[in-house]
Queue: 4 jobs
Job 1
Amino acid sequence: MLSVLIQAEHIKQYKTSMAKYIQPTTQIQHIARCGECDELVAISGLEKGQHAECPRCHHNLQSKDRWSLKRCSIIAISILILMPFSLNYPLLSVDLIGDKVDASIWGGIWKMAIEGYPVTAFMVFLTAVFAPISFCLAVIILRGCQIIKRKPRNLLIAIDYLKPWVMFDIYLVALGVTAFKVRDYASLSIDSYLIAFIATAILMTLLFAKINPRELWNDFYPQHLRLSPEQTEKLRENPPHFCYSCDYTFIRPLHDHKGRDICPRCNSLLNRTASMSLQQTWAPLLAGIVMLFPANFYPISYTFMNNIPTGDTLISGVISFINMGSYFVAFIVFAASIFVPISKAVIMLYLLASIHFNWQHSIKWQMRLFHIIHFVGRWSMLDLFVLALMMSLVTRGQIISFSVGPAAVYFGASVFLTMIATTNFDSRLLWKIYDKPAK
């Protein structure tokens, strides 16, 4: 069924948004398909401060209420200037019987790597160093391409893959958890470079919130499917193609050298069937669930007091914070380390079962559950970031020392795999069940 545009105009005096349908007129309209529910929508021209939503699932289809690439590139440059001070210089310091030890992001990653945990160190490096720097560089290069009027197809694809793995904001929370964890062992002091780290985290969060990789495609490759109301009526019988990779709606696909249909904008293959999408979701999800068992039963860290090791599992770490009286920190660690990974796996199993068994439950709640786990899943990396900072602060050879446990690599792998599963999940399969007539 062909829907019409729903525009959400942000009315400042009421501090709310009003949605209105625009009835078919003689105006030329831009046609797009919704990437979440597959609805066909006609969008008229948007003015500054407006955005177009799907009238069925309220997914943001197009927006004029976002920061320009010029402003985003300025923020990205500021982040790169602050990044060396945030990564390499000390953020926290502890005094262990007259011996001052500093904690830095890079120091923790390096010690974790050279002391026998290279895989865990690589996971932390990827999400706390490589992805943030690469994301900022990509934004800056995109701005350069915009100035010289080049079309960076591969860079737009890369920035879409990079964004979910930028976790610098989570490292800020991990720093606070680490401070609570070590305060009972030694006196803690804050270094002045922490200001640069906090500023970097805030700017990274702003950039993360204000830039949409899918919207950037329209800056370089605008949608061209603009039809009159009479022409849009004909699309009911023969709906246009849709590229899931770049949210592009078009009439005729291109063909690669093997004769396969590809998107004319990003050159992605269009033969992604429902069975392929389900396989790409099931495989990493089941692998992530398997990894959760050793992650919860093996020790994730060891604390050595006078060369006597004490292993801490995920749940015992939460209990230790409770015994210390840090109830809020215990809640954060419990939510990130135990509740979120398990609930994400359970919800994904439920959504996949709904598709396989054609369960016609409330589509509103199903989509809400999916959006929640897609947003909070990355916060499970909090534990690995705390481990990296602890490795930097409390090292071997001291009266108190700290070491990573075998559960860390399993836990990190579980977080990565379940994030890949939620990224590959196709919510349109839920809407197809919703569209079926009830028996």
Job 2
Amino acid sequence: MEQYVIKGGHPLVGEVEIGGAKNAALAILAAAIMTDDTVLIDNLPDVNDVNVLLDAIEGIGAMVHRVDRHTVKINGTNIRNMSVEYDYIKKIRASYYLLGALLGKYKRGEVALPGGCNIGSRPIDQHLKGFRALGAEISIEHGKVVAEAHNFQGEHVYFDVVTVGATINVMMAACLAEGITIMENVAKEPHVVDVANFLNSMGANIRGAGTDVIKIRGVKSLHGTQYSVIPDQIEAGTFMYAAAATKGDVTVLNVIPKHLESTIAKLKDMGCEVEEFDDAVRVVSKGNLKSTHVKTLPYPGFPTDMQPQIGVILALCKGTSTITESIFENRFKYLDELARMGAKVKVEGNSATVEGIEGFTGARVSAPDLRAGAALCIAGMAADGITIVDDIVYIQRGYEHFEEKLRGIGALIEKVSSEKEIQKFKLKIG
């Protein structure tokens, strides 16, 4: 099993380039099969989740051609298999987007019930509610969701909760339904807007993405396009918070600052200096950070995917902070690991109280999920001594060349796979 070994205590300084948004890329790749023309997508992150989804797309018969690490051509002409196997779904939840894509294009799809990061219950009931509203018949057979539509009509869909996955999935299917679909109480995340823009570039008629109401006028068919995925706001936020935790000075390049407003606001609350440019953000931390309170909310609120990263910084802030997690109930697992590094934390239900300490000490910790894994690496870079992070397969699901980018701004971090390599690293850094 691969691990990260980190020598802490070095401020991160320099520039780091941010890749394409993983969560946008996954939905866009699924939507690319909805035309029989060739679609070219670039600025894809080269991460495990994207590669697994491309395998799943190939698995149902689509042509997938990797032009380079960040560019792919997809052609869905020869899809004959309407069933997405469990092997793909258990690795990556976003494979369920293929259900909306297949249902829209072929009026039938089968997808195994999803897997992914273990951060709490993430039911797909709102996806199914939306598909049923459009006229699909839904059944669960042999561990699969089977959706079939004989009369696929636009309809009024009101989501009981704000959900990114269901917003995107139902939006994809509704593009090729007859008539007008109005979706209310939808998610407003940047990647929802990006998927809508992608579908519109293929000839869909979607209005209102980024607001509470999305209106879709169904079209007969979609056509080919070339499209570039937006930058990843969570990758950007992770490096910004790494700068804050290590008393660093880091500029993240290739970002849309508007997408980072809540992330930036909390950095300022804690006492960091933040400078915004057209497509870059610079974060300077001089230490002496102060406590604040955080509540995760759907966009434009503070992202749940940034909660573990801010948790690490709050543990180093002067005073007592609180974190309220309103999206996923299992998102505090990393705090047990952080306590091994000296953090003073107390969890009660969906709230955590964090009492600031002088500094972390290196320890052996385990990544419970993707974002928590990245957060523990940040803690390791801020800690005194050596930190070993196990189960980094989670981190590799969502961050491209994580350790290489960190080394580029001064981190002492290596990917290792044996005790011998850990000892070699310790000898090398002295």
Job 3
Amino acid sequence: MTYQHLLPPFLLLFKRNFSQLYHPRRKARVNVLLAKSSYPRSSSSPSMAASSGQQPGIAFQDFHYFLVLDFEATCWENEKLKPQEIIEFPVLKISGKTFEVESEFHTYVEPQVHGISEFCTELTGITKDMVAGQPHLDEVLKTFNIWMVKEGLLENQTKSIFVTCGDWDLRTMLPGQCGYFKWPVASYFTQWINIKKAFARVTGVYPKGMMPMLEHLGIQHEGRHHSGIDDCKNIAKILKALAEKRFRFQPTGANR
């Protein structure tokens, strides 16, 4: 004889769940019941990832978007140019949930002081004809800001950060050229992630460049090395591969 009919409904519910939790043939039920408990859950848990659009297997990130950037600039063999000028300006907008490309900004830039040398063309694939008639950098920066607005990247609730292969692009190249021409540098260019440092955190090996990172991760190189837009696509692959190792990216560089 049982006395279940005398128990209040909430005790009956507890008794039923308790028996399910410890039933030897219902081991999988444990995770279900714990997931329904009132204990706080990590925002990177599978259930949270599914509801938020976070891709399973990728750690929750502090940024909504990663902006992969890789400038190409004027260069002469065995000579240091002053100023060195950006001649290709590519940026990929990468989702912080899926790590897929959502949008692209890309333009060639006509230099104002030094032209394109044969050495530069051999290295980057960029010819004099490719930059002739293209906007100068000050115009490109204005167009880029319009793109940032259009993509919702400057909204208060949106967190984004640039990703570079090394610190040269945003610590040296852009501030150096803008300083020479006395152009302002937008505040969003003053913080970034150096993918080499992130790679070293994950693997324990500090890479010399992009190609060793791709090789280490078993990723096929795409396009032409030292083409800005192609390098961005390969850096984006490295970014995703590190995210799939559940790495949570943090800023590594800043100009104040």
Job 4
Amino acid sequence: MPSQTLSLAQARKLHLAALGLLSTPRRKATRQDLRRCIERMQLLQIDTIHVVARSPYLVLFSRLGAYPPAWLDAALAEGHVFETWAHEACFAPTTDVPLHRSYNRQARSHWGLKRAQDQVLSHRPQLDALLAHIDAHGPVKSSDFERQDGQSGGWWGWKDEKRWLETLFATGELMVARRDKFQRVYDLSHRVCPSLADAPVPDAAEVHAQFIAKAVLALGITQARWINDYFRQKPRLKDADLDMLVARGVLQRVAVQGWSSPGYVHRQHADLLQQTLDGRLRATHTTLLSPFDPLVWDRERASALWGFDYRIECYTPEEKRTYGYFVLPILHRGALVGRLDAKAHRTQGVFEIKALFLEQDITLDEAALHAVAQAIQRCADWHGTPEVCVQRTEPAALLSRLQAAVRLGSSTR
């Protein structure tokens, strides 16, 4: 039976604290802060869309404030993080290479891995020849190879070498050594991560249990049914599936008011849980979030915790979108108060807000409006697009107030 009872507001604060989104940073970020941020989340999802910032950079900005994006590139090149299939394509701490390698080989079901297996069966000689080329000549990018057919597109539209590089990456024979203008640079795994040679491959069942515990640790508090999505494990878990981890003291069951199912907290968050129960956690942070931020990437979890129904619409046909192409949730002092459809026009130095939507029943007083305007301006400045242009708001009456707040904040910087 649950040993503690939290209000929903307390559960939200615990969740935000674990994910690094409870409090506004009090000092400038360091490279070590960036690495710790990724370690805290366990995964940093990669996506190539860059109408604002590419998602992994924006996820870090939401937590660290303004930092040089090159720090993430350096963390990869220096071996602090590596790339893997997990939730989707993700950065993860290099200490977890054996876990991901084991799970991807033995248990994970993902389209990228499945198509890689098909390529291994049908093109092993070509894969071996590509490995020999890299062994002899060093790291390569897909763009090092010219395509011959004039086509382009997704997996099946890629040139052969791109498909084979991705296949060898999925099988673990290649790793991403670094990114060059966000293009993957591939090298032999033993050169990228020499410790792999001596690292035992953990048992799949052991890794499954570790990923469950890691997901709960990253989320701070979660229901059983939300855990599997974090590392994209199968099947979806039930409370009984966690009995062993609870019995071993790895996880603690708690009750959350309004939830019909118990919540789970990792033992490493025992102090944080007590601070939550004692009312010592304060939500002070206001920021814009990536559509692929772990706070919102599970639609059911975001809805249950925040009453925030969020769907990523960049892959939805334009005529079927409700809010826009690349919509950023707005976090304000422990609540998801709205979302905005944005585009950074870097050449012109303009941060365009095509539309900003407040959530139903949300109103912003002057202090809240000023905090949101500051968050928008900070994001715009970090992009090198300091001129903020607000086109539309819902409710419409918010438009003039937001425009004035943005201009006021800009004039006092």
